[in-house]
Amino acid sequence: MSNVDDDLEIINGDEADDDVTDLKNLNVTAPEPEIDEEVVEGEDIDLKLLKTIPTIYTDIIAEFADVEIFMISLDSLLLELLSHSYHNFENLGGQTIVFAAQIECFLRKLTELRAKFKLVAFTDFTPLYNQDTILSFYYNFMIVYLQKHEKYHEDLEFFKNPLDVKYGDFLHRLTPSFLLMSIENASLDQSHLALENDFSKRFLSIAIHLIALSIPVMYFSSFTINFSSVMSYRLFTSVLKVSDMEKKIEAIWDKSYDLPQRKLDPTVYKSTAEFLTYITKEELKKGRDKEEDFPEICAAAIMSALVGMKRGVARNYLPAKQVRKGLALIRLRRALLQAIAIKLATIDTKCLNFPMEDLWDGRLILTIFEAIVGKEKILPFRIQQEFAEFHKLADLKVPIQTDEGDRLLDPPSPSTPRKLLIDDLELYSIDSRLVDEFVPEFNEIFANRKLREKPDVFYEDAFRAIQWQFNRIEMRIFQEEKKEKEKLKNLNTRQLKNANRKRQKLMLWYQNFADSLGGEFLVDFTRTPRTKIEEIDVETDSKNTKKGGAHKKGGKQAEPKKSKADLIKEQNLKKQQAKQFETEKNSIEFMMKLPGNALAHLEEQFKKLELAESKAYCAFVIVQKLADEFERQVQKLDLEEKRLTAVELVGKIKECFTTHWKNLDEKQKEKVNEIWMALGFEPNPKKKGNTQMNLEIDLVNYQLYYGGRLIDIMSDPQKDERVTGFKPDNWQRDMIDAVDKFHSALIIAPTSAGKTFVSYYCMEKILRQSDEDVVVYVSPSNALSHQVCGSVYARFKNKSMSGGKNLFGTMTTDRSDNALNCQVLVVLPEGLEQLLTSPDSQIQAFVSKIKYVILDEVHCINAADMRNESKGHIWEHIFLLIRCPFLALSATINNIDDMYDWLKNAEIKKSMPGTKPRQVELITYSERWSELELAMQKLTAGGPNAAKEIKDDWDTFCKNSKGLQADRLKKAIEEVSTIEDDTESRTSTPALRESTLDIRMSLLKFFTPFSMFKPEKIRLFGIPGDQLLTARQIAELYSLMSSIDEATKKHFAPTKYFKDAAERDAKERGLAEMDKVWLNRKILRDYEKALKEKFMDWLLNDESKSRAMFEKLEAEVEDELEYRSKPFDMNSTALYNIVPLMDDLKEKSMLPALCFNEDRSIIRRLAVRVFNELEKRESEFLRSSEFKKINFQKAEAKYEKLMKRKRDEAEKKKERKNRRGSDEEQEQEKETEVDAEADAFAKQRSRLKEAMKRFKLLGPNPDEEMFNKTVERLMSGYAMEREDTKILYRLIERGIGYHYDGMVIWALFFRLLHWLLGM
Q1: Cβ atoms within 10 A of the Cβ of 45, count?
Q2: Nearest CA to 1063 among 1078, 1051, 1081, 1085?
Q3: In Å, how far are 705, 940, 1095 from 1092, measured between CA atoms?
Q4: Which of 222, 300, 799, 1183 fits as disulfide partner to 368, beta carbons 3.0 to 4.6 Å?
């Protein structure tokens, strides 16, 4: 067993020796992969070009998400549906009712999966359809059928061809996820419908055009809709290089066609028969009454429509006699169908007031036509009168004999059922609640079959009698674990030592992870946590009430008189508090004098204070410190930078006003007010203070645009005895209440909101209550499993295990470790499914001990694995099979109610008869603790030398192995000391380059989520309910809307709106009125909701305002989206733009930052790229005049002499202990002189340290001690055997780290992350 995957060996494949050489001279030689851009070139638009584009057969059900919409090619759908063999077009053109059922079934299957789509048709296909009567008729029938359809009529879209400008605008507005279409001609030979035209060329041009626009294409070929998947061939987007592509597409669509205008007909047709009657009348007027058999075929069509209206789908088709064959039938069919097609193409659908499905039944028409031509009795007596009216209205002269037997209206004769082989089988009877519940039709199907009782035979005994060997069924994964243990018994000393070393490494990994989290999470099992005590109303008996304690009627309870002892206690308590206040005040003042970051020391001390007065004093001191620092910086900042820098100061002042105000003295209050007025939030009547500190913005807008994190989240945190270390919010208390009641719960909350802690609360509860009970944690991935194991060890390692049990075990798809011998099992979904369905008695005994199942990231129920196969059925099996309560955690589920209802129904189905189903609670929380702003980086293509620089990055990193920054600095100082002191004669050095790109303009463009929305999608889906805006985004939304509509500007002006809302909120909460408007999330969400409702009203009812709004929204990100909409080399672009991004983030004080990339191979290269750039800038600095002016060589020498002199004096001091008077004073003066000169040099060193910080990417408060410990850990033990460790060793000093799934030094990286972030 190993703690890492098999493919996570060191990069060069060879492990280093145990004795690591000098780390300052490391030479990393691991090769880096080249970056190849996926480019498809071709000379023409043909199948040859298409076959070069990557294609995969995959599950596309994820594209049916709530906010995704795709397109279906209506032209492709037409040909695909008509290609089926059950369309017999020889019988006078098939049956429209079958074709309509095909359309309905296909689209209904998609909508049942919640698919949203648009049906796109290109009218320039029409000339090809018109060359074939069948295609023309069914195309026009399909269009009219869908236009009249109550569900799909709004989804139809018509364009001339792929180059139509309207089509381009449509794609831009819709941003479809793909187009479902055909590429080649459908196999129409099976349907007896032959095509004279080739559609494939045009289909190819549609596909190529979309791929060039980065829109994927799905094939109708092998398109399969299953219960939980939709399989299709996916054509990926690629960079297409085809010369004159648009001209070639234009040449393919050379024949343009304009659809005729649909016109209202004088008649509104109320039935199919009436519609066909008027078409017959018009055709007969054209002289077709003289054509042989044409009136007869028209009469047959009208009669067929009447029969269909009477009988519905169940019709009696008489045997065909084939009176007219071959060309005669084709001629008749073509004439009438062409007339119907023309009518369907030109009539307004409002005139067709009847169901369109049964417009044409070729088989029935043929039967009637042959009877009419053969002079047989065919007209049913029951429809004789109706037919006579239509016969007369159409001016038909065809004599038709009446059939008194009404054969056409008889029900169809039942066909003889085919005998099944199963009828001859004798089946055992089944008495199963499972069968009765889920297959109730079983008993009906087999009611008349031969059934016999199941024999009472134990087959194992029978087979043992003939000496068959039976082995216990074991899961393969446990067989592998068993083999591993057997191998350990047969190992020699060296092999056993290596095996133990691997296990020690694993435990060291867990220990490192625990160390990185610190000790605050460690659970003390000696402490007995209190459970929640329900409040019980107790009626107080007046007889038991003490004297003087009763309530007076209509008045307040009388306060008891304090005794002398109570007064003495109060006085003593006040003295103790006063003494404690002085002690805590002294500690605060001491922290101010400590070297380093005084604010960090004060913040840390603030957490340890107990008295409210002490906290108020500390808060005041912090405000003063921040104000002084801000005043020193303000001259170098522009207005925007001032506002950003002042956020922390404003936040601390807010704390003084809202929390500590009553504990501040008058002078402190006056000082706080002075700083507040200096910031410009209130007028200063004394006209004093630093006017440069004025932020020139009102308080409400400042909170919206800059102080979003200062807005009260309104989460109601309260102390709970069940939880240590923090005060849980209201919704978090609901979670632990559910666990205490042993209820199941579906918990939906954003990432970092604080929902994961309930998992560990649940584990702690199970671990405390028993040494046998088990809690199972289901993790969707191996990477998360390792992290959970580390967290379990960090929290519960103090738990004393009995009976040889382990605290936790793991189980993946291919390996396990202590899976059946632990109390906390961390398992993948597949693993738990195997346990629940295993027939092994030992495994089932373990399953019976499971008391809680925690399913993390439960939204993965709709995700696919690495092979793009859905795992949804596995998650469903788990929910249906577990016999205990569960916690299902997720950050993102859109259809929460559907999921919740399904889980409740699953619990009902699992409950035994007569028992109450387990309760499932729904706990949702939508607010993020810290707001999530959206920004887009302005990407820039690299210059002529960019590709070479990127390619040489790895070689540069390997060659410049010069050790740590301190060593390079020392070497630079030595070099400087050899240079003459005359700075004027020195050669000038190149100016320090701050970036590889010009970053004077901001690289980050902040935008609102509405900028990514498209009108069509919002109309279809509405604004997503979980899309909550940040304060800044809400303000920007108002700004855009108010620029379009004056009424919005007046009604929703933030200053007035929030002032009124804050007053109402304070009144509702029973708070005193405040002169300062402090926002909270409640009134902010009300404001957001009102703006969104106004926005939706524009979208649905005011086209001009909604268009203007979207134009402004799209303008925010239009250029960047246009750049990203076309395929480009993402890896090289990321490598080139990472350095400018880091520069921009550092300039805006937005570091530290986490940078993600989906490509594992590029992660390390991004880190190396930033490192090389910082090294290059540092080298330039060390050669610059700025560095040389510091004169390190003289200062260093002088400092060494001073320190030596001080040491010598300290030794002599011991010898002169008896000296007094002037000698002592003289000695003290010398020491002071030495200290002063040493302090002067210390300032110089500090200045150098500050200068060197520009070449590091560090947080505000980096922990030097943690850095040193981490480096020491990297240099020791097995860690330095890994190539990644050697690389990280060089990167971390620059404030750079990297991590990807499977890195064996993950825990060390996590510890480094704390240092980089300054936590």
Answers
A1: 22
A2: 1078
A3: 19, 35, 5
A4: 300
Q: How many CB atoms lie within 10 A of CB 675?
A: 23
Q: List the end-to-end C-alpha distance of the chain, in Å, as a whole number.
A: 35
Query: Rounded to the nearest 5°, which phi and psi values hold at 264?
Result: -70, 135
The order of strands in the sheet holding 822-827 is: 816-817, 806-811, 822-827, 774-778, 850-855, 886-890, 744-748, 920-924
CA atoms within 13 A on the CB side of 1210: 8
pLDDT band at 1190 (very low <50, low <70, confident <90, very high): low
C-alpha span between 1261 and 596 (Å, rounded): 9
- Which pair of structure tokens corresponds to residue 451? 């059934």
Q: By the 8 A CB rule, do 886 and 921 touch?
A: no
* pLDDT for position 462: 65
What is the signed CA dihedral for 64, 70, 76, 79, rounded to 10 degrees?
A: 40
| DSSP-derived 3-state class of residue 387 | helix
Cα 203 from Cα 181, distance rounded (Å)? 8
Closest CA relative to residue 408, chosen from 347, 319, 513 = 319
715-759 pLDDT, tens digit each: 888 888 888 778 899 999 999 999 999 999 999 998 888 888 899
Handedness of CA 1280, 1286, 1290, 1293 (dihedral sign): negative
**How many angstroms separate the CA atoms of 435 and 460, rounded?**
26
- pLDDT band for 867, please (50, 70, 90 cuts): low
The conformation of residue 155, written as its DSSP 8-state character, comes to G
Q: Is 225 helix (H, G, I), strand (E, B) or coil?
A: strand
Closest CA relative to residue 357, chosen from 313, 307, 411: 313
Is residue 272 within 8 Å of residue 358, measured between CB atoms? yes
Q: The whole model's pTM is what?
A: 0.76
- Cis amide prior to 944 (ω within 30 degrees): no
Structure confidence by residue, pLDDT tens digits, 203-261 = 999 998 998 888 999 999 889 988 778 889 998 877 777 778 888 888 889 877 787 88
Backbone phi, then psi, for 1261, in 5-degree steps? -130, 65
Q: Are 1257 and 1296 in contact (CB under 8 A)?
A: yes
Contacts of 1059 (CB under 8 A, 6+ apart): 700, 1077
Alpha-carbon torsion 1074, 1076, 1081, 1086, what sign?
A: positive
Report d(CA 346, CA 259) in Å as an integer: 9
Please give the DSSP secondary-structure letter assigned to residue 197. S
pLDDT at 1302: 47
Question: 776 and 793 in contact (C-beta within 8 Å)?
Answer: no
Alpha carbon 765 to chain centroid distance?
Answer: 31
Nearest by Cα to 178 from 144, 139, 128, 223: 223
CB 841 within 8 A of CB 834: no
Q: DSSP label at 1009?
A: G
Return the H-helix or E-strand segment holding 239: strand 239-242
Both tokens assigned to 703: 């909170």
C-beta atoms surrounding 1134 within 10 Å: 22
- Distance from C-alpha of 29 to C-alpha of 24, rounded to nearest angstrom: 15
332 backbone dihedrals φ, ψ, rounded to 5°: -65, -45
Q: If you average pLDDT over residues 820-826, what whole number do you get?
A: 92
- Other CB atoms closer than 10 Å to residue 1150's CB: what's the count? 13
Query: What is the Cβ-side half-sphere exposure of residue 949, based on CA atoms within 13 angstroms?
Result: 19
What's the full length of the chain, in residues? 1319
Q: What 3-state class would DSSP assign to 618? A: helix
Complete DSSP assignment for 418-448 = PPPGGGG--EE----HHHHHH-THHHHHTTT
